């Protein structure tokens, strides 16, 4: 049973986002970004209540900006998804989860050492240039089940 319901178009959209956000961090970096996308979809808590599709996660607007910078600024995001990235996105949607993105709902590249918290959320780890953050204990238990 997949972690989330999805269509073929969702796989391509997610693959484009994974590539745009983490192509320089290789397949594993893209898989971690994919974890965050799927986690936001299944979490239904905090800033991610009511998200019901990959499309709604990718194009979510918070504070007047898209949640994922690549939607607004990324030329790579608007390129066609490649087979290799579609395969990775499908892995995330079907089953793949791994630390530090396993339960993460946020990530960013600080261009400096990762802070221990980000907007009050604890760091779960780092992979190359991206820092990953999980929800504080008791604030979003559904992310640990989904």
TrEMBL record:
Residues 24-133 form the Cell wall hydrolase SleB domain. Keywords: Hydrolase. The keyword Ribosomal protein does not apply. InterPro entries: Cell_wall_hydrolase_SleB, SleB_dom1. GO terms for molecular function: hydrolase activity. This is Cell wall hydrolase. It comes from Neobacillus cucumis.
């Amino acid at each position: 049973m997949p972690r989330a319901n999805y269509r073929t178009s969702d796989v391509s959209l997610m693959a484009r986002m994974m590539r745009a956000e983490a192509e320089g961090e290789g397949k594993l970096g893209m898989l971690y970004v994919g974890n965050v996308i799927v986690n936001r979809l299944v979490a239904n808590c905090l800033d991610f209540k009511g998200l019901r599709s990959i499309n709604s996660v990718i194009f979510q607007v918070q504070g007047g900006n898209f949640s994922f910078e690549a939607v607004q600024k990324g030329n790579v995001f608007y390129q066609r998804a490649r087979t290799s990235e579609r395969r990775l996105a499908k892995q995330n949607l079907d089953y793949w989860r791994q630390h530090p993105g396993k339960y993460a709902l946020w990530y960013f590249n600080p261009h400096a050492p990762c802070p221990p918290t980000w907007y009050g959320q604890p760091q779960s780890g780092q992979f190359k240039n991206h820092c990953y953050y999980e929800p504080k204990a008791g604030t979003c238990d559904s992310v640990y089940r989904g």
